[in-house]
Specification:
This protein is an alpha/beta fold and 352 residues long. It has 14 helices and 7 strands. Strands 2-1-3-6-7 form a 5-stranded parallel sheet, sandwiched between helices. Helix 2 crosses helix 6, helix 9 packs across helix 10 and helix 9 runs parallel beside helix 12.
């Protein structure tokens, strides 16, 4: 019997050692034992943090809602929040996450992002079945191929002395970022022009803007980045665009789901606030206005307001604007120069 147990132990030992290493290096603090995750912006981290320590106030959206300094949010609002926003979250996923949160705790308030970009027709992504399996089933998490790859990558980097963790949208720009190929001053920073051109792929017909050309450079923070080398051609093409070049349409199914969300919150006594997040003036001038996106966006705002839920608009008819230098790219405020000011203003309005 002892020999059998010894053999079983020897057989199990490699697996025990591997899963011990997994728990030590896994970057998401899945079980809430480490006091914080390395990959703090991942959907796994966000949802597991909520499941381990649920708060009755939640934030939902994509990366534009994911990077708040939560200590500042709590200081301004006077209450603790669970931030369930994560980079790349689709509207479907944010809506489903709301109901998942509502099943787990009695919600008091919710701040929910709605944007022309996340509410566009054609973005029907919904990974919630796979997400729910991983975040609610520890065995599925331990045996998931992707999470094991993430753990091994984390282990390899830490063993090599490479600092790991979430990156933040903080820019360090040089004089060249503000001039064109010939040294002539540009109306917008090169990366803001290129970012607007990038989004054309999802809201305009093919060929409206030329391909983005770039070179690899290192910014003032030591980060490797791509700098656009044909900003003039991109500017000219986007300024020449018209509504006839647009393929943009509102996802009516998701807009209806937002109206249903508002009705659910009203019935349950949950304080819901819709937030249309800020966009840079380059994105407005070079994409939203020429493609005629303001018209459907205005209708979206009217329908959201008709639900009775407050709508804080920084996108269509902004209640507050931010300077070019406060943006990292067209959709994201710089975490140093713009996001803190926005965070304070937003949550003062939410709690007003």
């Amino acid at each position: 019997m002892k020999k059998l147990l010894l053999r079983l132990f020897c057989l199990a030992l490699p697996f025990l050692l591997y899963f011990g290493a997994f728990l030590y290096f896994e970057p998401y603090d899945y079980f809430g034992l480490k006091g914080g995750a390395v990959s703090e912006d991942s959907y796994i981290t966000r949802i597991r943090s909520f499941l381990n320590h649920p708060q009755d106030s939640i934030i939902l959206g994509d990366s534009r809602m994911a990077h708040f300094d939560m200590a500042l949010v709590e200081e301004v609002s006077g209450t603790a929040w669970s931030n369930l926003a994560f980079g790349g979250a689709s509207m479907n996923e944010s809506l489903d996450l709301f109901y998942l949160a509502a099943e787990k705790t009695d919600l008091k308030r919710c701040v929910f992002e709605v944007s022309f970009y996340t509410l566009r027709e054609g973005d029907a992504r919904n990974r919630m079945q796979a997400i729910t399996t991983v975040v609610e089933n520890p065995f599925a998490y331990l045996t998931n191929f992707n999470t094991n790859v993430d753990m091994l990558n984390e282990a390899a980097q830490r063993l090599r002395g490479i600092q790991t963790g979430a990156t933040r949208d903080a820019g360090s720009w040089s004089e060249e970022d503000y001039v064109d190929e010939n040294g002539t001053p540009l109306p917008y920073r090169r990366n803001l022009i290129a970012y607007a051109a990038t989004l054309y792929a999802n809201v305009a017909k093919p060929g409206v803007v030329p391909a983005i050309e770039s070179e690899t450079v290192t910014d003032g923070n030591g980060n490797v980045m791509e700098r656009c080398t044909n900003p003039t051609a991109l500017l000219d093409a986007m300024r020449a665009a018209t509504p006839s070049d647009s393929t943009y349409a509102v996802n009516e199914e998701n807009l209806t789901r937002l109206e249903e969300l508002a009705a659910y919150c009203k019935e349950k006594g949950i304080e819901l606030t819709f937030v249309l997040p800020p966009i840079d003036s380059a994105l407005r001038e070079l994409l939203v206005e020429p493609l005629g996106i303001d018209e459907p966006l205005g209708e979206v705002k009217k329908r959201l307001e008709a639900t009775g839920a407050p709508v804080l608009d920084f996108e269509y008819e902004p209640i507050k604007t931010f300077a070019q230098e406060q943006y990292y790219d067209g959709l994201h405020l710089d975490v140093v120069h713009g996001l803190p000011e926005y965070t304070s203003f937003l949550f003062q309005e939410v709690m007003a």
